[in-house]
Amino acid sequence: MPSIAVVDMAGKKVADLNLADAIFGIEPNAVVMHMAVVNYLANQRQGTQSTLTRTEVSGGGKKPWRQKGTGHARQGSTRAPQWRHGGIVHAPKPRDYSYSLNKKVRKLALFSALSDKVAGGNMIILDDLKLDGFKTKTVAECLKAIGAGKKALVVLADNNAYAVKSIRNIAGAKATQYNTINTYDIINADTLVMVKGAVEKLEEVYA
Q1: Torsion over CA: 98, 103, 107, 112 (sign)
Q2: Around Cβ 26, how many Cβ atoms within 10 Å?
Q3: What percentage of residues in the chain have a pLDDT greater than 90?
Q4: Is CB count within 10 Å lower at the N or C end of the chain?
Q5: Residue 59 CB: number of other CB atoms within 10 A?
Q6: Which of 124, 129, 111, 122 lies closest to 167, judged by CA?
Q7: Which of 119, 193, 182 is nearest to 151 (CA)?
Q8: Residue 95: how many CA atoms within 13 Å on its side-chain side?
Q9: Handedness of CA 24, 25, 30, 36 (dihedral sign)
Q10: How confident is the model at residue 31, as a pLDDT?
Q11: Residue 14: its pLDDT value, please?
Q12: What percentage of the chain exceeds 70 in pLDDT?
């Protein structure tokens, strides 16, 4: 059972916390984590690219010349693909790139990413993030004190609007909740900062 220090907002150790082996102590599966990252990025694609086919280009209703007797190849429209200003063959159209992964695969990828952060010493447990307003400076000083690094993912136990908006103003930092955390954000962050309450709720849900 991995054990990790719990620190306060000033970076001072206040306690030790034993983490659940099933979530934070497994052997990371790189293949499954890769699958989860590719899936996440694919689901973020808007797929709004679109060009015009010959039926959608305006004009071209008149036959350019008669069918026979001109010496030219027969043509029916100046908006055919071989013409300048004509339509595009096999034109890209809006599409949905999203797909779903097996629930067990998603869970294994999440646990692998969390375990990898713990094993690499890149996870910090924060006792609590108490704010009485939008305090970007306070949060920035807290992240610096605990050694969160340039790219930090802060996992909250609840929807704390003060914390979310304060963290959002800090370059490289991102806030999320324990129930919306995903593999890509964990891997993309240099340091994973989890509020103690978020760890407890995460273990309650999965362990």
Answers
A1: negative
A2: 17
A3: 66
A4: N
A5: 10
A6: 129
A7: 193
A8: 7
A9: negative
A10: 96
A11: 87
A12: 100
Region 100-108: mean pLDDT is 94
Taking the C-alpha atoms of residue 80 and residue 53, their distance in angstroms, rounded to an integer, is 9
DSSP string over 168-206: HTSTTEEEEETTT--HHHHHH-SEEEEEHHHHHHHHHHH
Give the CA distances from residue 83 to residues 89, 90, 97, in Å, rounded to whole numbers and listed in that order: 12, 15, 32
CA gap 39, 166 in Å, rounded: 29
Give 150's contacts (C-beta < 8 A, 6+ positions apart): 171, 172, 190
196: closest CA among 112, 129, 145?
A: 129
What are the φ and ψ backbone dihedral angles of 30, each rounded to 5 degrees? -65, -35
- As a whole number of Å, the CA-based R_g of the chain is 27
Q: What is the pLDDT of residues 124-174, one digit of tens each?
A: 999 888 888 888 899 999 989 988 888 999 999 888 888 889 999 899 899
Beta strands at 13-18 and 123-126: parallel, antiparallel or unpaired: unpaired
